[in-house]
Amino acid sequence: MPDRIVAFVFCQLLGAALGGWLAGERGAFGGALAGALAWFVVDLVRGWRVLRWLRGGAEDEPPAAGGPWGETADRIRRALRLRERASEEAGARLQAFLAAIQASPNGVVLLDAQGRIEWCNQTAAAQLGIDPERDLLQHVGNLLRDPAFADYNAAGAYYRDVVITGRDSSPGRPVRLSLQLHPYGEGRKLLLSRDVTAVEQADTMRRDFVANVSHEVRTPLTVLAGFIETLQQLPLDEADRARYLTLMSQQAHRMQSLVNDLLTLSRLEGSPSPGVSEWTAAGALLAQCEQDARSLSAVLGKDSHEFVFESPAGLEVGGASPELLSAMSNLASNAVRYTPVGGRIEARWRLLPDGRAEFSVRDTGPGIPPEHLPRLTERFYRVDRSRSRETGGTGLGLAIVKHVAQRHGAELRIDSQPGAGSTFAIVLPAARARMLTPPPPGGASAPRARATP
Ligand code: ADP
Q1: pLDDT (tens digit per residue) in 156-192
Q2: Using one digit for the tens of pLDDT, what is the confidence trace for 129-166?
Q3: Using CA atoms, how far apart are residues 250 and 392, in angstroms rounded to an integer?
Q4: How many distinct structural domains can be found in the chain?
Q5: 446 CA from centroid of ligand 1 (Å)
Q6: Which protein residue has the closest C-alpha to ligand 1 atom 7?
Q7: pLDDT at 49 over 60
């Protein structure tokens, strides 16, 4: 400010000196007036240039105006730069925030106070069929027309969710979505959507499983209770007593097998997959399996089965041997139980050319119609219910086999046709199969492990 006064006075003095020199005392007065006017004009021009720069958005460098106008322009420019940087940072933060919501596996829709869509992420767009651009400011009720959601929205009970059928749902591939509104701000709402198909399916499976187990246990229990009552109330002769006790023992065994299979399944589900450090000779597993199959055949009174058991010498398989044996025995036992008298059962291990090891059981039994094949490994799924029960089946054998195969990274192959017998095979990956090289003739050294290709 003082330099402004100095400049103003200087202009007047200069004008007065010039006027005085040219026209004496009157000229000095006129010169002082002209000097003051010149100062005003220059100042006005400077102010006007700063104003023009501001009107132009103050984007380029400020005009070179010294003095207070120059400082004003400079300070305005600095304040604008600071605000620009703050708004850039806020914009970047908003983008990062939106990107995080985009990455959410759940759908997110922001609704304004009128229930119109302000923004939605890709998941919500896909799940609810919203076009993030076209449907902007559309009322959510116009897009989500499910009556359950309309009732939920109208009732305002937002503490719970509502489950609706997804728009891509089909009888073969049902899709269920959970929707929940969360009020926030001034009348705004957040709509969250979540795919609950798997959760609902797991829930249904759990309920079916409990119902199936209860049913399976109830039948032998009812029979047992009936026999116990008969034994208590009727005076039976020795032969009848013995017959009843035999039947009771059969029912007790049936429950025992069921509980054992259930425990096996829950153990398989609850433990980590077996490593490849434990190697067992395939021949030893097969010998045990053969013993089980032959005794079952004898118990069922069908020892007229023709059996073939084969395993290449030196083949070893890696994994949990009790699990592998259980899977093999389940397949062999099914073959025995479903193949009529005189039928042929072949169980063999072989090393495939690509290094994998296959255990297969082939029978000449009744075979299985193709429509049943995809469901065979479901728990309690049976093609021939009465045959399964008669022969002590629990309906869990193939579910156990499937689990063991999965845990060993193996493939379960089922090949069967009605009237043409069945072949069930477990194919272990190459990493779980190896061939021991035979010891040199006369040599005393132990067999050496050779990894197969
Ligand atoms: P189950 O204890 O009833 O045998 P599984 O899970 O072992 O239960 O087998 C499921 C169903 O698959 C059986 O009920 C049976 O109908 C059919 N099945 C399994 N193996 C054979 C086979 N070798 N021949 C014909 N049907 C079979």
Answers
A1: 899 999 999 998 889 889 999 999 999 999 999 999 9
A2: 999 899 999 999 999 999 999 999 999 899 999 999 99
A3: 9
A4: 4
A5: 42
A6: 397
A7: yes
Radius of gyration of the chain (CA): 44
Ligand 1 centroid, distance to 198 Cα (angstroms): 28
Confidence (pLDDT) at 369: 95
Cβ < 6 Å from ligand 1: which residues? 334-335, 338, 363, 365-366, 368, 376, 381-384, 388, 393-399, 422
444 pLDDT more than 70: no
CATH code where residue 264 lies: 1.10.287.130
CA angle 384, 386, 390 (to 5 degrees): 120
Helix, strand, coil % in the chain, rounded to nearest 5: 55, 20, 30
Task: Give strand pairing partners of 309.
Answer: 347
> Is the same domain home to 444 and 389?
yes
Same domain assignment for residues 210 and 310: no
Provide the pLDDT for residue 440: 56
Q: Which atom of ligand 1 is least distant from the CA of 421?
A: 24
Instruction: Report the interhelical angle of 397-407 vs 238-270 (nearest 10°).
Output: 20
Domain shared by 227 and 241, yes or no: yes
* Separation of alpha carbons 269 and 137, rounded Å: 49
Q: Are residues 330 and 445 in the same domain?
A: yes
Instruction: State whether 145 and 185 are in the same domain.
Output: yes
Locate the ligand 1 atom nearest the alpha carbon of residue 365 and give its number. 24
pLDDT one-digit tens code per residue, 260-287:
999 999 999 888 899 888 999 999 999 9
Say if residue 92 is in the same domain as residue 181.
Answer: no
Q: Is residue 38 located within the same domain as residue 118?
A: no
Atom of ligand 1 lying closest to residue 396 CA:
6
Q: What's the pLDDT score for residue 50?
A: 86
CA distance 371 to 99: 47
Centre of ligand 1 to C-alpha 388, Å, is 7
Residues 139 and 80 in one domain: no
Domain end (from 51, 81, 98): 98
348 alpha carbon to ligand 1 midpoint, in Å?
19
Of 195, 227, 245, which closes a domain? 195
Note down the domain range covering 226: 204-269
279 Cα–ligand 1 center, Å: 29
Question: How many angstroms does the Cα of residue 383 sit away from the middle of ligand 1?
Answer: 7
